[in-house]
Amino acid sequence: MTYRTDRIEALLDEGVRDKVYPGAVWAVGDAADIRASGVTGVLDPDEPHVKMRPDTVFDAASLTKILAVWSSVGALWEDSVLDLDAPLGAQWDEVTGHPLGGVTARQLLTHTAGVPLRAQLKNLYGTDRQVIRAGVLHEALHRLPGEAVEYTDRAALILGYLAEHLSGQPLNQLADARTWRPLGMTSTRFGPLPAEIAARCAPTELDQDTDTHLKGVAHDFSARLLGGVCGIAGAFTVLGDLIRFLRYMLDASAAPAQAGFGAEWTASSLTVQTGGLEPARGLFWHPAPGTTDEQDVWVHYGFTGTGMWISPDQDRWAVLLTNKLYYTRDRQPLTDVRNTFRQLAFS
Questions:
Q1: CB of 91 within 8 A of CB of 166?
Q2: pLDDT digit string (tens) for 159-173?
Q3: Is the pTM of this model over 0.90?
């Protein structure tokens, strides 16, 4: 692992020099332990003396979909409260008689439900949270369910609402009770963050309203509009918590307690569920770009610059956390770093 560690460090250091991101935190390991990890760069280029740290708090962005929604839906499925293949209208009065009522949870998890591709919550529904909820749940479909794989934030937003309905708890409380607390993920929470925790947070994009970089407040506009808690984004986390989560996925006995979801949910989710449709998808997870079925590497990214990979066949996981959004929304430079990082972590 030493040779690869050197190469990973060189790769991520180069990303700092090329201003792909101000800094990065990373780790690679298996069910038993962390095999390699490191830190590079700074928290904020305006404060070059403040280095990135292993316990830096990151805006998880779309990793929220895994940490909060996927895990909570899995718990409800394991509890036999949720039938993935029953029409939502049969389980949820709020969508009965509306286009979404004929969609299944599995279709939402595989991004084949045909719901609109863009959130556009404020433009379409205004700023009242109940009006937004009703609008999202009663909106017409973009295309027929099962017709195509099209990634959309709305899938996670709807599943978050569904999890709240079936559990009778807000999503943040449900995720904390069923996943974060049992696994010892004590630094994972929805924002906005209190000041003392926000101080350790990696800043993201420049907020035009305040002329300061967002720090401790979700970058995702939908999450901010909905008060910080929603299925799309809004969670903040640290490297150590993601390691606990991924190690549990590989071996549930490695955790201090059992989460609401278990091995069966993980195995189902890390299996192609989209038949012949492309791009292939599991349940919210998808095969890592550039990998083969035999390599069995699955990934989920966050728009702010976060990402985590897992391979049950190789008994390996990897995490790369950056705040690339500090500099740019251009995805390609980080995409190149991510792909090389994955090759080095799983080769």
A1: yes
A2: 999 999 999 999 999
A3: yes
